[in-house]
Amino acid sequence: MKLFIISNRLPVKVSEKAEQFLFTRSEGGLATGLDSLHTQYEKHWIGWPGLNVEKPESRQRIREELEKLDFHPVFLSAEQIENYYEGYSNSTIWPLCHYFFSYTQYRQNFWETYREVNQLFCEEVRHLVGSDDIVWVQDYQLMLLPGMLREIMPTLCIGYFHHIPFPSYELFRVLPERAELLRGMLGADLIAFHTHDYVRHFISTAERVLHMDFRLDEAQIDNRFVQVDALPMGIDYEKFHRISSSSAVKPLIARTRAHFGDRKLVLSVDRLDYSKGIRHRLHGFDSFLKHHPEYLGKVTLAMVIVPSRDRVGSYADLKTRIDEEISAINGRYSTMDWTPVCYFYHGFSFEELTAMYYVADVALVTPLRDGMNLVAKEYIAVKDGNPGVLILSEMAGASVELADAIRINPNDTEQIASALAIALEMPVREQLQRIRRMQTVISEQTVNRWAADFMAGLAEVCRKNRSVRQRQLTPETLERILHTYRHTRQRLLLFDYDGTLAPICSRPEEAAPGRELYKVLCTLVADRSNRVVISSGRDHATMERWFGKLPVSLAAEHGAFYREGRGGWHANLHHAPWDPELLELMNRFVERTPHSRLEQKQTALAWHYRETDEWLGTLRAQQLMTALIPLCMRLNLQIMPGSKVVEVKSPEFSKGSEVRRLLRRERYDFILAMGDDTTDDDMFRALPRAAVTVKVGAASEYARYNLWRQSDVLPFLERLAASGSTGHSVRETVTRGLRTVWGHFRNLLTNKKDDDEK
User: Fold this and answer.
1) Which of 692, 708, 673, 641 is nearest to 465 (CA)?
2) What's the average model confidence in pLDDT over 508-512?
3) What are 580-609's pLDDT values in tens digits?
4) Residue 242's domain spans which residues?
5) Same domain, 537 and 637
6) Domain count across the chain
């Protein structure tokens, strides 16, 4: 099986020297983790090679060399790099996701190029990927790609990992392209983030912007499920933990110690970025020196800043301000033999950096917002029996796992100063205990474990989606059902109403049946082999008004009332007045929840929240069910959560009990049942295994088949009706029935028009 990893950059840097192309492998955490998957998959990588190449012959040479490594380049023009990468990716999405709203730039050409480049990646994937392959898309530069791939390859197994924070709904909603970006991400089968906070923000945003329904961490889109999960990325723990004893690093450790002498070393390592809190860190260190003069000349802050995005204006301005503030601190406190801040504006080799980790007494990792931050984990991993203290921002994803760090709010510079004092005075024994506990965590949650967990989760949801697709009512399946239907003579046809025979409406009273539905029901009941039953949660007065003229059997309020053909209504339960305390509780939730309403039936109370804000409605539903539990236990009532409704009713009847009543009266050689809600699962469970059970919308483990859209129900029933008895007498019966029903339908329309005018 092939695994295609899609990222903005390939794990190799291509450079040109003397008309020759040089290829240098990257050793980043992502590349390391994904390399561990080579034993299970034939691994390919698609991405930009990091070089602007215009000549076709040069592009071909690079492609041929990279494809020897199973790398497939996507070449970008200088304009695309500027507008897609430096523009929309890093001047629009990056600042917004890191809560730097004022830095966010909106330009139409940024967005158009971002979409254009995502389409370029999509075309490259389409040419390389087979339907049985797996695609794993990486990060915010390619948020549209999963959706684009889903359009052209509906059954492809697609994963997406978002490596940066996902902001709250209130922030993400300001993006003009918010809906398109979300739909792009939701093209994946599995969407993962570093922390549960980001998962919560994403689900809340998708529910509010796209009006989706998530059940915990899962949503259904058409004929597939989308899973959302939190998978914290780790590091290659053993590589870092063993490095201090290597022959290449030992002399570097000695040199680092000699350079900083017997002074305490505080280490800070970052890319140049405003999200890293570098200036706040400097202010905190300045405050520490001011309030703790006893440490003057005894502690040094080694600040490593790796150049990044120098061409972006906000980054160049940040670099200038950092230079000025470091100069101010050094000018204020330095002596002939001591410089408070040692500033390195360049990268270090892996060996040099780990030597600094090993020697450093304190690691100061205080980003204002960070998806994960692996520097914190690397520092802890390198420690091999020697002490050290990690000061970590609570805004970094790593803080969720590293509970033994000194966690601080990076916006509070005085707290940074206090944390430095605590760290420098912490007993060695406590330092070692904290490090050991954090090493236990990161040695288990490694980058290899992260990659394996993601692939396992992706495989599971893709298996589920394949199973769901197999239940789909395909043309072949439909023909088999019709064949059985034609060759049987005693049939029971059971239909839910809302969400099955009629679409869900924001206002339930607007869901009256239309002419086409009457027509197909008339055709079905005209066939003497059929017994048609509409089983609904609606009250029996509404059911009588809508279907009273039809010779169909009706069950209302989940089986509490039933009617045989054109006969009268029967009650399964004697109605008593509703408990005042119960009514008061449910009405209180109506008052507290704008646009919700309480429907009082004879045998059920239904609190509807379809028109309520997604988040508030879900919260209130959970609160209502919690509040109802003790009361309903005392009153012997059942709580039934449904699609945007919480219903309270007697447990003595349900759609399942109605099915059992029907099956006791007659034997059938063909049974069809269709429903869309959790209440219909009771109906499916009560039927024999041979019954044709069809869940409309979300898949059900109790139904044999699925029909994804409610709009497909009527065409399905029309096919069913057309395949039944076609004799002359039946046609006459249908014609007479239609005349009667059309008169009834016309009266309904007239009454509705009068109500609207009122």
Assistant:
1) 708
2) 82
3) 999 999 999 999 999 999 999 888 899 999
4) 237-444
5) no
6) 4
